[in-house]
Amino acid sequence: EKQRSILLDSSSRFPPPPGVKLSYGTAGFRADASILQSTVFRVGILAALRSLKTQSVIGLMITASHNKVSDNGVKIADPSGGMLTQAWEPFADALANVPNFLHLVQLVDDFVMKENIPLEGVQSAVILLGRDTRPSGESLLEAAKQGISSIVGAVAVDMGVLTTPQLHWMVRSRNKGMKAAEMDYFNQLSSSFRCLIDLIPPGSAVNVMDKLIVDGANGVGGEKLQVLKKVLHGLDIQIRNSGKEGVLNEEVGADYVQKEKAVPRGFAPADAGMSVAHFQLSSISQCFRCASLDGDADRLVYFSAIPNSNNRIRLVDGDKILSLFALFIKEQLSILNDNEGDRENNSYPATLGVVQTAYANGASTDYLKHLGLEVVFTPTGVKYLHEKAAEYDIGIYFEANGHGTILLSEGLLHWLDGRSSEPSLTSKGSEQQKAALRLLAVSKLINQAVGDALSGLLLVEAILQHMGWSIHRWNELYHDLPSRQLKVKVVDRSAVVTANAETVVVRPLGIQEAINAETAKYPRGRCFVRPSGTEDVVRVYAEASTEEAADNLANSVAQLVD
Ligand code: NG1
Ligand code: ZN
């Protein structure tokens, strides 16, 4: 039939490179951009089928995030704005790796039958396309369009250069029937930020002295932050590495800052508070606040430079952002649940949960538990964290590398809506109204689809102003345990199999016992290994009471894996 011949014809024009096998890992398909044409074309087909199946708008994003500029990648946003359902990952793998176009058509045929996907009906499919600033993005986007249009009734809408979270936000908004243009995104962020600022209790010291400097990783984030700045009031932001100054992710960006614990390129010493003149004029507590985004702006970390330390920094990572958010949310919930004198006892038993991975610094987990919060662990990968967080009325998740967000349940939002609009005469009632309004503003500011560096940054800034805190006060919430991460190149990383949220190696046999024996030698020692989902390596993480001990533990365990 017609569909079959279109698919045969178009897929014959996108032969896969021989000998390449890709897998839809924690972040879609990623590889050197030069070998991705066929993969992206095929993901276009996948997106169209997903849209037909769900009868909803689907997103397709072309990015390789924090990886080097010559890499690229492709991933799908499901109707909710979240990651592609895990149930379709095996089909994604099969489709990407099918050796020739005849097999491809057969594979698609079978899958359409199995999933009962309505083809060639009146239905239509809509796929929103986005890409980051990588030079290979444009031609890969073309390949995606060709894949999409080889499914009859599927329409590709090119949204241009976007951050990954912007595309996810658009997909989610479109499917909820809400405004979904790029300017709507910026307006929603700036108005909910404004709302939080207007609700700051009188008397909170506002840090007017502090200046915020943001590292855009020479990617899309800096560019978009420039636009956001224009509609934003009440925050002085200076942007470095916004694209023109240097190479994407090269000694810049959140991944570099977090892993190397170093000041990114493009930050003049004075920026980070290191110039002699500045240093003499102000105390360390007035040094500037710096933030760093990754290449597609879905990760955010903060830092401040250590004066005269040869580019060393004090890192304020995803765990600390999570802790700041958790503290603020908990405060608002306890205001709301303070029922003394509330005759109607309108409280809502909201569940609050915090989700981390094994990479979370042990000191952060101790701190969060000390606050009385429920802390749970999942394997690495946003899809796992997000799914877990969605089980709570308020679920806060973060990876140490700065990817995370806060999810609020529909039930809670509905209740908050009621609370915020209740007429109240007592001042007590109005405190509760304010807390409700703050949580509603948080739900609009913070991206409900996926971790978002721009919205995360605005929430951090609003909370710091609310608390009257400097970055140093924030950083003092707890002290990170020294940690070390290493990568080990192995012949076959899939030989390493883990359990218990990746904290225990079950295969090869005997390794875990050896890791335990090493770890036991160090006070506060903790160590785990796992195969990376995005790179061909096994990762080693070690934590201990001193830098030296963490380094030694990581090195000796790396040798066990090698
Ligand atoms: P892998 O390569 O599976 O460790 C990395 C990050 C993840 C996540 C993904 C997706 C670390 C240790 N791992 O995954 O947290 O962000 O990339 O980008 O940072
Ligand atoms: Zn990213």
What descriptors fit this protein?
alpha/beta, 5-stranded mixed beta sheet, single chain, 562 residues, binds 2-acetamido-2-deoxy-1-O-phosphono-alpha-D-galactopyranose, 19 strands, globular, binds zinc ion
Kindly describe this structure.
- There is one protein chain.
- The chain is an alpha/beta fold and 562 residues long.
- 41% of the residues lie in helices and 17% in strands.
- The chain is built from 19 helices and 19 strands.
- It has helices spanning 2-12, 37-54, 89-97, 101-115, 137-149, 164-175, 182-198, 220-231, 254-260, 276-281, 318-336, 362-370, 382-389, 410-421, 427-445, 453-467, 471-475, 511-519, 547-561; strands at residues 29-32, 58-62, 71-77, 125-131, 154-161, 212-215, 237-240, 289-293, 300-305, 313-316, 352-356, 374-377, 394-398, 404-408, 483-488, 497-499, 504-507, 526-531, 538-543.
- The strands form five sheets. The chain has a five-stranded mixed sheet with strand order 1-3-2-4-5, with helices on both faces. The chain has a five-stranded mixed sheet with strand order 7-6-8-9-10, sandwiched between helices.
- A hairpin with a 7-residue loop joins strand 9 (300-305) and strand 10 (313-316).
- Bound molecules: 2-acetamido-2-deoxy-1-O-phosphono-alpha-D-galactopyranose and zinc ion.
- Residues 65-66, 294, 296, 298-299 line the site of zinc ion.
Low-pLDDT stretches are 274-286
Q: How many strands appear in the DSSP assignment?
A: 19
Profile the largest sheet.
Answer: 5 strands, mixed
Number of helices: 19
Topology:
Layout (H helix, E strand, L loop, with lengths): L1 H11 L16 E4 L4 H18 L3 E5 L8 E7 L11 H9 L3 H15 L9 E7 L5 H13 L4 E8 L2 H12 L6 H17 L13 E4 L4 H12 L5 E4 L13 H7 L15 H6 L7 E5 L6 E6 L7 E4 L1 H19 L15 E5 L5 H9 L3 E4 L4 H8 L4 E5 L5 E5 L1 H12 L5 H19 L7 H15 L3 H5 L7 E6 L8 E3 L4 E4 L3 H9 L6 E6 L6 E6 L3 H15 L1
Parallel strand pairs: 2-4, 4-5, 6-7, 6-8, 11-12, 11-13
Antiparallel strand pairs: 1-3, 2-3, 8-9, 9-10, 13-14, 15-19, 16-17, 18-19
Helix pairs in contact: 1-4, 2-3, 2-5, 7-15, 7-16, 11-12, 11-15, 14-15, 18-19
This protein binds 2-acetamido-2-deoxy-1-O-phosphono-alpha-D-galactopyranose (NG1) and zinc ion.
